[in-house]
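[stage:ingest] chain + small molecule (NAP)
[stage:ingest] validated
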Amino acid sequence: MNIVVIGGGIIGEAIAKNLVAAGYNVIVTEKRVERIRDLEKLGFKVTANNRAAVKHADIIVLCVKPKDVESALKEIAEEAEGKLIISVAAAVPLDFLRKISPKSKFIRAMPNLAITVCESFTAYSIGPDISQEDLKLAVGILSALGKVHMIDESHMDAITALSGCAPAYLALVAEAMMYAGLVVGLERELSLKIAAQAMIGTGKLILEGGKTPSQIRDMVTTPGGVTVSGLFELEKVPVRHAFMSAVKAAREKSREISSLICSSISEE
Ligand SMILES: NC(=O)c1ccc[n+]([C@@H]2O[C@H](COP(=O)([O-])OP(=O)(O)OC[C@H]3O[C@@H](n4cnc5c(N)ncnc54)[C@H](OP(=O)(O)O)[C@@H]3O)[C@@H](O)[C@H]2O)c1
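[stage:predict] done
[stage:export] tokens:
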């Protein structure tokens, strides 16, 4: 299976790396010369020629910034006729993609930065012309990047706000815990390691151990104990409200960007 990854930036490189490890034949296309050299040094097959790469590809993964989606798609439209294109561009709707390249088939996917360590949560939505075979191939590709979940496209802004932004939110929590460790006299590196491992561990308790967040809290909290003293202090700050407001604001921003992108094409 020949896959071309268009745009060898952070996400393109991570996708290419995971797909090569999963046994796919991958070519990365990139326009910046110095970036091409970097990618070649990392062992990737790289070209600046999008059209030639797409011509020999079975599936295309579009990894350019949202502002570059239109020009990249226009460039490859002819060679991509009838082919499946998985776009990971945030805030770029399926309708927009289909208008630019009506003869291609599209899946819109939203990974997050954890894709670089093969731990992405990738939500995806499919266009109306996607066959069962296309879907199987796409799920195979996206599963090489972490966990996958099909969603209705109407939820994509919410997914972007929650899942796409999650590494930034949780990095803030990790940093806060690191500072908390410093306050009680632990080394910086050790505190950060504890915070990160606790995130992995708590995630696994939920995903693999089947525990709910409240069950986990109850399991750690004994009457008059250490954890409840910590939670008592945390209750003074509206932690849940802060996250709810943050995700709501991020969803609004994603909607705003998405409608700007759509209006740019409807004005043409
Ligand atoms: N970063 C995240 O956490 C994240 C999460 C989910 C989804 N996404 C989506 O993933 C996409 C890529 O993000 P990124 O962070 O990897 O961006 P990035 O680092 O800027 O990578 C995009 C790369 O594509 C190159 N490029 C632009 N137009 C091209 C073309 N026509 N042909 C070949 N290469 C081209 C760019 O070169 P120039 O720099 O010279 O333009 C750049 O090197 C975006 O659409 C973003 O919305 C990102």
